[in-house]
Design brief:
single chain, 216 residues, Glutaredoxin, 4-stranded mixed β-sheet, 9 helices, disordered N terminus
Length: 216
Amino acid sequence: MGEVIQFVRRRQGARDRAAGVTFFFDLACPYTYLAAERLDRRFCDARWRPATSGRHLAVSPLLAEAPGAGEVDLHALRAVERRARELHMPLVWPERFPAQVPHAMRAATFAAERGRAQAFAIAVGRLAFCGGFDVEDPRMLAEAAAAAGLDVDDTLDAADDPRRDRELETAGRALWVDGGTTLPAVRHDGGLFCGEHGVTAAIFALPAVVTAGPGS
């Protein structure tokens, strides 16, 4: 007789391994949006951790200090657009881009505390890079909070709290200490996959739980 496959045990083992996955993300970066949408479907039990590059990690050319007021790195812009087409994903540039999104990132730390970072990051990414909205607008943050099942007032309070910046910097520094080079990134059992292409490699290389549960 053939081997009896214990699907429940196999699924639990996959969940245990997926629980060891940490996804570091920056909501200002379109590569985070491109990576997050696919990671969301692959690892339902991953830990999502907002982080800023600070002075440690490399910054996307799109988010680096522009060489002149109002200038955009068109080569970097086109590279993102090509990648979105390769992945068959929609891409609409936000009203205010390129720009950092400190309020959205602070709100993401609050979402992480409530176990809703995954749902919040997906909601923000879709508002920004599918809808073209400015996610620094409190109305957009309120929409993302509601979509993620967060208390809207508490989320907006967190977005206005600059003390949360330290947590974001700490996460970026921790990734750098582990050998990380850029965001977004996936860490799994000491291994690191950096950049959107690195996250793609992780998606194919690591065991998955493909039946998504509630965002975490």
